Queue: 4 jobs
Job 1
Amino acid sequence: MTAKLKITTVGNSAGIVLPREILERLRVRKGDTLYATETPNGLELRPFDEEFAEDMEIAERVMRENRDLLRKLAE
């Protein structure tokens, strides 16, 4: 699915309006929170999942703390 989205002003910020079809595919509605993740193919939007967010925080912390070790393992 491809959708052309227009950036609009929301107060002092910018935002986009998601068409109903996208909201349905994400299984979200007005007021829900989305999680944006950068991937090699661009940004990925998914419904916010508290457990996933906590797991990502832990993974990012481990990667920061063990950066040198992870580089060695990647060789």
Job 2
Amino acid sequence: MGFPCGDVETSVAFYTAVFAPLGMTVGMRIPTGPPGAPEVVGLSSGGPHADFWLAPGEAVAQELHVAFAAPDRGAVDAVHEAALAHGAEVLHAPRIFPEYHAGYYAVFLRDPDGHNVEAVHHTFG
């Protein structure tokens, strides 16, 4: 999945800093023009391939919501701490959201283009 960003490098810096506790890194860069032109950037969430893409362009005006899976609650808390250190807007601090299900533990943040992004850990059973 992916979407256009108002400033790809600002978004790359946000996602790789804030979601570093989930293993988010730059997986690949694809040039879109001459040297110095903005690139399409594929982010990897711990695997060998990019699975989240940021492209240059006009940011989507409607708020998008993207959830990234966390391996445990500690990782959700670490994303929250990284978001605070990065100066990101925290929409909802980490907690259980029973309106989704009894084991839905998440933090909700605002990305540089105004989208609602979260780290979530699901505990079932």
Job 3
Amino acid sequence: MGPNRTPRLVPFLAESDDRRRWHRNVAQGSRATADVYVRRLAAFSRLMKVTPEALARMSDKPLRDLVMDFVEIESKAKHAGSYIHSTVKAVNSWRKHNGRLAVTGVNIRGRESTPTLVDEIAPSPGQVRTVLARAPLRDRVTCALMAYSGVRPEVVGNYLGDDGFTLGDFPELDLSGSEPKFRKVPALVVVRESLSKARHTYLTFAPLPTCKAIEDYLKLRIAQGEKLTRASDLVSPGRGRRPFLRTMNVSGAVRAAFRSLDMKDRPYVLRVFFETRLGVAEGQGKVVHRFVVHWGGHTGDITARYSLNKNRLPGDLVEEMREAYRRCEPILTGEVASEGDVRREVARVLLGSLGYSEKELEGVDLSNLEQVRALTQKRVAPTPKKQALVRVDELPGYLDAGWTFAGNVGQDRILLNPPEAGAGPTSPPSPPVSHGGDGPVPPR
């Protein structure tokens, strides 16, 4: 039956080859769903005192009556409508497996809601920062990825612990040096199809706090003697037979960080925080809706238009996304931009107004004043050099300074051109001591 099967499922599945066949078929879509359906069907059978095989043979009307009775019993017991609905779905899945019609016409109050989520409020940026500060280094990575990149717990480690984030899913993480280092921040994060709930590859980003947590965590693993490769897991499960953390362990780590701060929220509230803060950023015009949809792993026009099977989007679109995410960072992290960040943003806006694209600015250190000045001078027309109108007795001093003859103006005035660039000083020489008469005519 496999080493990963929950022990509680074994007796129920062991009673019938057909039950195991049904479980395996549902697991083709989602192993977690298959296990939940088995538990729900077993609970229904115990409560209503009927075997799954008898359910499969029942005609429509008796079965509908039985399910209605179940709904009434569970509703009086104050069980969530979502739980009751999930049980009915499991019964219908078993019926369809046996070639029978599903139960219809059964109303369930609150089937789309969960009471524990009604009053759920997303934490503030300050609360999230406190969670990250309190969490152990390994768990800090997980919390930061959920809060600032919006990934689900099963992306870090899936239900069975046989897949999850690897270092290769962070293409801008450099492992070639003595210490792991991100080449770009915010850093690109690739959520592979096998980890995506919607079964499509999508991209999101990791800001500086997440990148710093990952770098520190990987340095610790290297110091402990681990050899890291692109195939290494991002969050190590420690000793054990599974190569990745299981989703329940990922959620458990986040929950432990919450409980240390007396927070009663479920771990998934960090993803709620991500989407809530991006909604604020969208309302302020910092990001377009299609980027928000894509970063959240939902199916949108970006996913529909581009094939991400090779984890690729057009480079200019990725950089456009990165800049949009950078604008959202202060709203996500709640941290005020530093003076250097402000200077870089001003330089980016200035160069953008001169026609530079994001692709052209790749690799440019926008905090380097000389680089910014050089790029600016390439697009700004030089200021015309000023000529000088001088008297004849002033002519020798100007000629010695590199000025050249341009023409006569009247009988006692001469128009001069300034020296060529690099030929000497461009300012006029000091005027001679006046012995009466007119002084030098100012340059024009």
Job 4
Amino acid sequence: MTLEELYGKMGGNYEHAKQIMKMDKMIDKYVRKLKNSGVGDALSAAGETMDANGLFESAHALKGVCANLGLDDLAAAAEEITEEFRPGNSRKLTDAEVKAKISAVIEKYQNTLACIAEYEVGA
């Protein structure tokens, strides 16, 4: 599987990643690092306790990593949580709604990691 095929399978924006990273070698390097970043685990843990600072920090980190990698859908989903818990913002969602959004983000994240694992086997 090529990087372009991987991005198609993940629903990512390969051209966006290429604009930011410039070279396939860099995209490959950082897309592989996503699985060891721990951002998904941090988001899940913060969601269990509804730790506002932890939710902001972990969602913000996930959003940034995904935005740089051209994983636009995942970045947008993480951004919703980021903005909900951004210091100074008023909460708009209930805890139950936040937990549902976290579950959706984690599911997208896990699907993305599964695609990357498949890519690594074929690379």
